[in-house]
Prior knowledge:
With 84 residues, the protein is mostly helical. It contains four helices and no strands. It starts with 6 loop residues before the first helix and ends with a helix.
Amino acid sequence: MARYKDLDKLAEDALALCSRVRESPPQHTYRVLAHHCRHDPERMAQLLMTLAVFVDPATATTGELARIVGRITAPAAQAFQREG
């Protein structure tokens, strides 16, 4: 297929891909994505760039993830600083 020209269709397909990733077994998702990337790389590049635009690093979800990672890694970082 040719690259997306209809940006609404691109956004729709990006959201549909998100649903499929959440709902499908990981191996199936991998096989489907690998197939599409191999056979339609330009279209998949557009789809992946659209997904990247959807992710806002300042969102509550991303901020919460950063806080969780900080809580997990803080004890090791503090121990390293005490030893150094």
